[in-house]
Design a protein that fits this description.
Length: 433
Amino acid sequence: MARNSLRVFMVQAKNSLRASIDKRQKVTLVIGNESADLDSITSSILYAYIRSSAPPPKAFSPLYVPITNIPAADIQLRPELLALLPHANLQAEHLITLDDLPNFSNLESKLCPEHTKWVLVDHNALQGTLGSIYADRVKGAIDHHDDDCKVPRDTGDEPRIITKSGSCTSLVTEYCRKPWDALSSNAMSSGTAGAQGDSTLDDEAVASLWDAQIAKLALASILIDTVDLTATHKITRSDTSAVEYLEAKIMACPRTGKDFQRSHFFEQINKAKTDISSLKLKDILRKDYKQWTEGGMNLGISSVVKDLNFLRRKAKEEGGEKDARTAFVSTLKSFAKERDLAIMSVMTASASSEREFSRELLVLALTDSGVKAAERFLTSNSEELGLEKADGEEEKVEVDSEAKETTWVKVWKQGNVDHSRKRVAPMLRQAMS
Ligand SMILES: [Mn+2]
């Protein structure tokens, strides 16, 4: 297909998804993980955009549709995304979300598995309802988490790249480089501007503007995930070269390159990301949330960009008389019960005004087997994680014998700040299995 702007592509992709559901045609879906952080969203869009413009010869379907793995309403919980979209000339309604798929209750009959092919980005095992229906239809992955070994070894035309990097978007950028460059040079000699109906710009200017828009989208995720390339422990060669490549695309566009400064761009998106004061506590908890089932138990982990005291204050504001700690734990309990969790964890990562980065870890166990698993987790990993009892924090084990309920809550300062959920989730899952 002819090349288009990202904005036009997203409209086409949404229409084509609708058409393939209505007419029962084949469709290729590219989906990020269910936390739907910036990295997941931009990985899926970049992959789908480049692959749709230059699909392999025997593509399963002509278009790759990028799916953001949340309901449309939850886009509003992601201020960093809302701040970023205008840079790519996109609006929230251009994103394709779970709302654009048939209802989960009749998903399987309306979008039958044989008509679908799935490529996973920023995860490598399809979770939840989608996983229960389409897991066998996963035919490719680009990811930077531990390999769950669910993606088949032979993925044919699609990649199977599961390797370390600060940001998954860096790996996608690396994979897309050649077709992307080919696309840019083709567009410059093929009447792109005429197709766009923009007579004020020549072909080259239009192509470079489109390139810059998608490059900004991708760059934002890499900068957020690597803290503007300063988080040295997680940066790999893929990140640094992707940043270089994307920055060059932005600078090559006279319109966007003129005033572009990478650190300002990072600050703008990062500021939006950490401004969560207008959100309700439960929305903060589900904003960057992942869930797994292991050993017959459910585990949920929320990542949060503010510290626990911020969350406790929030809980008190919302919960009335109770003291902040009690109010917070009771919100956590109800959040966990709604999801039938045996273990709920909150991981905070925040920077002080002196820009000192710190992490806290909270683990709440809600069932007897959950408590046992939590204790195993602790025994095996507290050293590697550098867990220290947090100041003024009482370790708490409550047994409500009347309700036959055990709750076990512990909070630590996590001395090893390099370990994010990417490392802690496998530790907890291991202890549960
Ligand atoms: Mn990621």
